[in-house]
Design a protein that fits this description.
There is one protein chain. The protein has about 210 residues and is of the alpha/beta class. The strands form 2 sheets. It has a 7-stranded mixed beta sheet, sandwiched between helices. Strands 6-7 form a two-stranded antiparallel ribbon. It starts with a helix and ends with a strand. The protein binds S-adenosylmethionine (SAM). The site of S-adenosylmethionine has 19 residues, from α1.
């Protein structure tokens, strides 16, 4: 899928569904917050949420005093929904509309978080482009937290095929320099009560 097709897909999703009508909706991104805390995030850590969509992670990070939060997503509509919900607090967040596989970062980050965006990259060249951007923009000794559907999780999300991962396959994708520091499984309950198995892995980067 190219950037235009991807963007059209996601704009349509967010234009036609409310925040709480999508399978990935979470009232509280508790595990993401815990994993970000566990890597030693400080109030000045530069944190980016890749494919953050309309997630409430940005709200929760700002509420906890993190002062350098960025959300990147393909969908302008998703970021608009998040900004509206946050109101004046949205000014504390940097918002970027971009495709993570084509984005040219202009600064670096301490923590790269991704819940349920990387797993849409089913083609080798897209995953390689994503990892190349991650490597360029993550600081030495920074951390990456990636949550994807687990090997026994769903094969599709939002009508699109996904590549399911565990810590080992993610580690292979990231390559040399990324050391696994934490891995978790999470059973996510969708708004209509079904269960989706996720896995979250945290890696520390040494350039
Ligand atoms: C399943 S949703 C998850 C949203 C959010 N992370 C959460 O946990 O609520 C996937 C998100 O990734 C975004 N996305 C998909 N592919 C992307 C890409 N290549 N670059 C940037 N964002 C992407 C979509 O627009 C969508 O908001």
């Amino acid at each position: 899928m190219n950037t235009g097709d991807r963007q059209a897909h996601w704009e349509n999703v967010y234009a036609t569904k409310g925040e709480e009508e999508v399978s990935w909706f979470q009232e509280s991104p508790a595990l993401s917050l815990e994993l970000i805390r566990l890597v030693g995030a400080t109030p000045t850590s530069a944190i980016i949420d890749i494919g953050g969509g309309a997630s409430r992670l940005a709200d929760a990070l700002v509420l906890r005093g993190y002062a350098d939060v960025t959300v990147l997503d393909l969908s302008e509509a998703a970021l608009t929904a998040a900004r509206r919900r946050m109101g004046a607090e949205a000014r504390r967040v940097h918002w970027i509309v971009a495709d993570a596989t084509a984005w040219e970062p202009t600064r670096s980050y301490d923590i790269w978080h991704d819940r349920a965006a990387f797993h849409f990259l089913t083609e080798d060249r897209d995953r390689a482009a994503y990892v190349a951007t991650l490597r360029r923009s993550l600081r030495n000794h920074g951390h990456v937290v990636i949550g994807t559907f687990a090997p026994d999780g769903p094969e599709k999300c939002s009508g699109l095929p996904v590549a399911r991962h565990d810590a080992a396959t993610l580690g292979k994708e990231l390559g040399v320099g990324f050391a696994l520091v934490d891995t978790r499984r999470e059973e996510h309950t969708t708004p209509w009560g079904s269960t989706q198995r996720f896995q979250f892995s945290t890696f520390r980067y040494a350039k």
